[in-house]
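Section 4.2 – Deliverable D4.2 (structural model, holo form)

The reporting period included a commitment to supply a predicted holo structure for the target in complex with TLP. Inputs used:
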Amino acid sequence: MEYIDLRSDTVTKPTPEMREAMAKAEVGDDVYGDDPTVNRLQEMAAEMTGQEAGLFVASGTMGNLAAVLAHCQRGDEVILGKEAHTYRYEAGGVSVLGGVHSCQLPNQPDGSIALEDIEGAIRADDPHQPITRLIALENTHNRCGGTVQSAAYTRQVAEFAHERGLKVHLDGARVFNAAAALGVNVRELTALVDSVTFCLSKGLSAPVGSVLCGSQEFIRKAHRARKLLGGGMRQVGVLAAAGIVALEKMVPRLGEDHARARTLAEGLSENRGLVLDAGTPATNMVFMNLAEDVDMSAAQVAEKMQARGVLTGVSGARRFRLVTHCWIDDESVEQAVAAFNDVLS
Ligand code: TLP
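Output (structure tokens):
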């Protein structure tokens, strides 16, 4: 059965053009820096994000971890949001592998962290305390609803950090979605931070990979961290080739996914069994809860939806996250709304 898969944009498969580019990719041993396709992808990524250099990594998780390892020493502290993907869903890698302590601050509804909170969390120069080194932001913010933080906010945090000798890393897994929603060039969200990871394998539909971008000096350190993590790959141009197509062809169409997420939300808002989050969707994610009088859990509803050909993301006992992407067309949106109406009638 061909499902309408709304669990995540990570479920997207490579497009025919990507498969063709992968088959034809010129490759070399990337551990020697000899893969021309990887080199091209890294240069493109650096150029697009307004950074000096890029590093192709296996995943968003690896990119974020390599970034923290490159910025921090053992005993340093990274300030991040309580709802940050790096804190919640990356197996505690920064602590487990980096010996880096994390300071988790509340996220505002839009996923940002209040500047006053960051200021209050900076450690004194005191041997009892870890050393504040890094601030990590996330844009779009996944757990806060696929929400977007503005260029002005990003600039404020970067200036604030730099005045205090701190660095800023951006988990920009979906930063091209943020740029599309704001109608700005992605550089406005990425050029002022010290490092950024973005994913090729989510809404951009490539099968594997993320790119970590930053200064030459930072990327030199991140390269060592990637090796340490077992992420030195060889003829990996076959994957980078799909990434190049992703950047060239898939970035410009992300607005379509946002429009479909809006249509999906409009359709679902008529269903009395569902309570949509205020303001959802900000980008390509619709978040909602089951209404109080629904006598089923989200998992039970999801099972019934699956029987009707729709896969949903269960993100709590009574909560769903539905994500649109390039494999979700107008008809899929209509069918998903109809299936919810059928299950929750
Ligand atoms: N997010 C996945 C799940 O892990 C939740 C998803 O389906 O959304 N940063 C952000 C903001 C992410 O949303 C994700 C993946 C990552 C990093 C990690 O990327 P990968 O899965 O490539 O390691």
